[in-house]
Amino acid sequence: MLGTGSWGTTFAKILADGGADVYMWARRPEAAAAIDREHRNAEYLPGVTLPANLHATSDLKAAITGAAVVFIAVPSQALRDNLTAIKPLLGRDTIVVSLMKGVEKQTGLRMSQVIEQCLEIEPERVAVASGPNLAMEIAKEQPTAAVVSSISLETAQEVALLARNRYFRTFVNTDVIGTEFGGVLKNLIAVAIGIVDGVGYGENTKASIITRGLVEMTDFAVAQGAQAETLSGLAGLGDLIATCQSPLSRNNTAGKLLGQGYSLAAVVKQMQQTAEGLASVAPVLEIAAASGVEMPIVQQVKRVIEGTMDPRDIAPHLTTASDEPQSEHGLGETGEITPLGGGSVKPGSGLWRRLFGSR
Ligand SMILES: NC(=O)c1ccc[n+]([C@@H]2O[C@H](COP(=O)([O-])OP(=O)(O)OC[C@H]3O[C@@H](n4cnc5c(N)ncnc54)[C@H](O)[C@@H]3O)[C@@H](O)[C@H]2O)c1
Ligand SMILES: O=P(O)(O)OC[C@H](O)CO
């Protein structure tokens, strides 16, 4: 396990409690010693006792050599540098699993893509894990589900079997794009929820943003090649719910500070841990623009982050730039609205006017 922050340590505990012998690599020798000898990571998981079959070292070679599976939980923007360091140490068949929920700012690549590119390994040897997984709850052994995804079902199953114990159940899928983007995009919606929370808006506003946010997430991910149902699963809706409603979420917390009027610089200074959403906004919007996907909520998050929108203005702008009444379920290629239950309503028709008035 590379990364001894809150998720790396918690996921290492999941694996160790599932019966695996786990070796963590910590950058600081004192952090490695505390985990290895005292079975504690007080900085990130105060009050949690780590299992005896979870070891830690600051020697990267010792941590990686002989590993059947390498899990990575460092901040997304630090991934590439870490991969360069582990590349010469990796076994020929080692599986590499991303636990991260970000995209690389410079390239817009997903974490699994950075891993494949930088390590020059086959995509079948790469997996990602995602889901509604707030670290501290799992560290306290609260029952939780997750999903492991790889284009190789065999790889996904192998990893899922390792990441399974009495309090953690792991499902599998082969939709890596949907699984990764679910994790990336729910962070952005959680920042929006934090913002309106910070402003003082209530549950209607938040439910509206969560629901419309899921539409944005799905539209975006499907345009990149994901399956829509993945976004309704653990890595999409599941994680969206957990992250948007929990004060444990760093993205939600960062949003709340922005909503209370703090600048981005002040928020970053206050955050002790990684809030991936802040770095993902720009690359996600670039990809959205290139693929013609509208992301009105994420656009507004960007404007609040850069200080060009008052956080109090975020809620009334939940629709697209157009003034036209918009179908909840999107417009088909013909521009016709598709209501629930099939059929369609032609813009300007009698039924259209009855439903939406003269506009
Ligand atoms: N915390 C959670 O609940 C949770 C759950 C699921 C996924 N994740 C994802 O896991 C990833 C890591 O998040 P986290 O919560 O563990 O973050 P964290 O801030 O708690 O820990 C990050 C860790 O990475 C280390 N680190 C920082 N810069 C580094 C660098 N340049 N090289 C190597 N290590 C470096 C830090 O020392 C720390 O050990 C993120 O992508 C996050 O979205 C987090
Ligand atoms: O604390 P956050 O906002 O990074 O969210 C943590 C996990 O991704 C929740 O599944």
From TrEMBL:
Transmembrane segments: none
Catalytic activity: sn-glycerol 3-phosphate + NAD(+) = dihydroxyacetone phosphate + NADH + H(+); sn-glycerol 3-phosphate + NADP(+) = dihydroxyacetone phosphate + NADPH + H(+)
Annotated NAD(+) binding sites: G3, T4, G5, S6, W7, G8, A135, R250
UniProt-recorded Gene Ontology molecular function terms: glycerol-3-phosphate dehydrogenase (NAD+) activity; glycerol-3-phosphate dehydrogenase (NADP+) activity; NAD binding
Record keyword Transport present: no
This protein's UniProt keywords: Cytoplasm, Lipid biosynthesis, Lipid metabolism, NAD, NADP, Nucleotide-binding, Oxidoreductase, Phospholipid biosynthesis, Phospholipid metabolism
Pathway: Membrane lipid metabolism; glycerophospholipid metabolism
GO cellular component, one term: cytosol
Domain Glycerol-3-phosphate dehydrogenase NAD-dependent C-terminal residues, every copy: 175-314
GO biological process, one term: glycerol-3-phosphate biosynthetic process
Domain Glycerol-3-phosphate dehydrogenase NAD-dependent N-terminal: start-end pairs: 1-152
Positions with a binding annotation for sn-glycerol 3-phosphate: K101, G131, K186, D239, S249, R250, N251
SUPFAM superfamilies: 6-phosphogluconate dehydrogenase C-terminal domain-like, NAD(P)-binding Rossmann-fold domains
Residues that hold NADPH according to the record: S6, W7, R27, R28, Y44, K101, A135, R250, E276
Pfam assignment, any one: NAD_Gly3P_dh_N
UniProt keyword annotation of Aminoacyl-tRNA synthetase present: no
Amino-acid positions noted as binding substrate in the UniProt annotation, renumbered to this chain: K101, R250, N251
Region (Disordered) location: 313-349
Catalytic residues in the record: K186
EC number: 1.1.1.94
Localization: Cytoplasm
Known role: Catalyzes the reduction of the glycolytic intermediate dihydroxyacetone phosphate (DHAP) to sn-glycerol 3-phosphate (G3P), the key precursor for phospholipid synthesis.
PANTHER family per UniProt: GLYCEROL-3-PHOSPHATE DEHYDROGENASE, GLYCEROL-3-PHOSPHATE DEHYDROGENASE [NAD(+)] 2, CHLOROPLASTIC
Family named by the database record: Belongs to the NAD-dependent glycerol-3-phosphate dehydrogenase family.
The name this protein goes by in its record: Glycerol-3-phosphate dehydrogenase [NAD(P)+]
Species of origin: Mycetocola tolaasinivorans
